[in-house]
């Protein structure tokens, strides 16, 4: 074999496992061949197999459980960051064929906090509505969304629409207030208390948290939100620089 054609053994092991998963011979939750089994199959050492596993674990293809072995991981749910247009989480996943459902945990009026008054430009004494929902992707809990909505808008949202539509669709289709700007931040956190229970994850599990305000064309704040995503949710992004600015 010529040098350019040489493929390291650990890469060959990775390709073998990827092919088994792609062909359906290994599916989510299946135990993969062990380090000794793969070392024997490829006539190599356990250290080489461990190196192959390391990259696959990093990519989320497999998971290693102490005392149990190595298993095929749940495929990650991902959505891209698209800076050129405003699209909801649901629109991005639906474009990939995912089925999105909602489980409403609460929808009721409440007094706003000082931070919410400022973020939503509320008048003194104005109430807000708090909407807590689970997003289910393919029947599995993927994220918890907590929304704070000005009272004048919340009163116009029916129980039917909050059970069936994304907040972007509700604002656009039912209230005629399309979202044209999103201001927010993404941070890391851990699952605590009710959030862990609602997302069906262990307390202390890592979470991706997104804080944001949805605004109309005239910069009117429409909704203040906080979304908690399970660790198997990924955000894909591409950064491209204008060659003239390089």
Describe this structure in words.
The structure is a single chain. The protein is of the alpha+beta class and 246 residues long. It folds into 2 domains: 3-72, Winged helix-like DNA-binding domain superfamily/Winged helix DNA-binding domain (Arc Repressor Mutant, subunit A, Orthogonal Bundle), CATH 1.10.10.10; 77-236, 3-Layer(aba) Sandwich (Chorismate lyase). It has 9 helices and 10 strands. The strands form 3 sheets. The chain has a 6-stranded antiparallel beta sheet with strand order 4-5-6-9-8-7. It has a two-stranded antiparallel ribbon with strand order 1-2. A two-stranded parallel sheet has the order 3-10.
User: In DSSP terms, counting alpha (H) and pi (I) runs of 4 or more, how many helices?
Assistant: 9
What is the domain total for the residues?
Answer: 2
CATH topology of the largest domain: Chorismate lyase
Q: Calculate the mean pLDDT score and round it.
A: 85
The main sheet comes to: 6 strands, antiparallel
Structural Rg: 23 Å
Across the major sheet, the strand order is: 4-5-6-9-8-7
């Amino acid at each position: 074999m010529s040098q350019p054609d040489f493929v390291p053994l650990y890469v060959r092991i990775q390709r073998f496992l990827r092919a088994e998963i792609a062909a359906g011979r290994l599916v989510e939750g299946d135990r993969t061949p062990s380090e000794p089994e793969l070392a024997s199959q490829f006539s190599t050492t356990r250290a080489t197999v461990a190196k192959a596993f390391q990259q696959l674990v990093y990519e989320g293809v497999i998971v290693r459980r102490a005392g149990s072995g190595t298993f095929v991981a749940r495929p990650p749910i991902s959505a891209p960051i698209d800076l050129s247009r405003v699209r909801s989480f649901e629109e991005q996943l639906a474009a990939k064929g995912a089925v999105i459902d909602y489980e409403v945990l609460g929808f009721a009026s409440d007094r706003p906090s000082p931070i919410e008054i400022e973020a939503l430009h509320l008048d003194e004494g104005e109430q807000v509505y708090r909407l807590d929902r689970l997003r289910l992707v393919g029947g599995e809990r993927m994220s918890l969304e907590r929304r704070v909505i000005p009272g004048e808008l919340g009163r116009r949202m029916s129980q039917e629409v909050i059970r069936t539509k994304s907040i972007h669709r509700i604002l656009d289709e039912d209230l005629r207030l399309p979202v044209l700007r999103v201001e927010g931040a993404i941070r890391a956190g851990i699952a605590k208390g009710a959030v862990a229970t609602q997302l069906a994850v262990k307390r202390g599990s890592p979470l991706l948290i997104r804080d944001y305000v949805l605004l109309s064309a005239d910069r009117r704040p429409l909704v203040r939100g906080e979304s908690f995503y399970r660790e198997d949710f990924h955000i894909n992004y591409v950064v491209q620089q204008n060659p003239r600015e390089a």
